[in-house]
TrEMBL record:
Active site residues per record: 10, 89
GO biological process terms held by the UniProt record: negative regulation of glycolytic process; regulation of pentose-phosphate shunt
Protein name from the UniProt record: Fructose-2,6-bisphosphatase
A Pfam family annotated for this UniProt entry: His_Phos_1
Presence of the UniProt keyword Hydrolase in the record: yes
GO molecular function: fructose-2,6-bisphosphate 2-phosphatase activity
Keywords of the record: Hydrolase
Length: 224
């Protein structure tokens, strides 16, 4: 069974505006963030969604509800919204709410990579998670392994949804680093992943629910 996932990055929050790490933190949407959500809703107004998922953060739930409002106003049946912690952004532990440049310097500088992009270029995206956990004095930040174990649990929830059928469309409200992580793991060559997904952007995957997770996703579009 293949379902079509429409992953929307939530609208801009105050932490996005202030360039602060925002994983499990719960900063509210700005006025621009509400407009981001409405813009995504307008893009998706003609899609008939069979299901909708988001993380249990306020920014994701608010974005989802505004998209579903627009979708319903355009004549579509409104699916139940499933909010679950498995769909949360990467957990940054001690560095939650920290200025991003300061946090990534703390993570990468001991390894000779003082910025987020430098860590990726020298060590790969997974190292951004492992280095941040290492730099966290409490070691509460998620490692790459811990992160993927949780994220894969979220997609197991979708795969096990008995109400879904082959060809159905599913809305999922996602997060910036999670979208990048999915793209780094599953995208073929040719995508510019130096460009972060914008708030309110739409990324589409075909999800083969019968396949093991490493072969389950095909990228249809990124950061639209």
């Amino acid at each position: 069974m293949i379902v079509h996932l429409h992953l929307v990055r939530h609208g801009q929050t105050t932490f996005n505006r202030y360039n602060r790490l925002q994983g499990w933190s719960n900063a509210p949407l700005t006025d621009k963030g509400l407009a981001d959500a409405d813009k995504a809703g307008d893009k998706l107004r003609d899609i008939d969604f069979a299901a909708a998922y988001c993380s249990d953060t306020t920014r994701a739930q608010t974005t989802a509800q505004r998209i579903l409002d627009i979708n319903e106003q355009n004549g579509h049946k409104r699916p139940e919204l499933h909010a679950d912690m498995h769909f949360r952004e990467q957990y940054y532990g001690y560095f939650e709410g920290q200025d991003m440049n300061v946090a990534w310097w703390a993570a990468g500088a001991p390894h000779g990579a003082p910025t987020y992009n430098a860590i990726i270029e020298q060590y790969g995206l997974g190292a951004t998670k492992d280095f941040l956990k290492e730099a966290d004095p409490f070691h509460d930040a998620e490692s790459d392994e811990e992160y993927w174990q949780r994220i894969e649990g979220g997609y197991a929830l979708i795969a096990n949804n008995q109400a879904l059928h082959d060809g159905d469309h599913v809305l999922q409200i996602s997060h910036g680093n999670t979208l990048l992580s999915l793209m780094h793991r599953f995208a073929p060559e040719g995508y510019d992943l130096s460009e972060r997904p914008a708030n309110g952007s739409v990324t589409c995957f075909d999800f083969d629910t019968a396949q093991p997770i490493d072969r389950a996703f095909t990228v249809a579009s990124y950061n639209q």
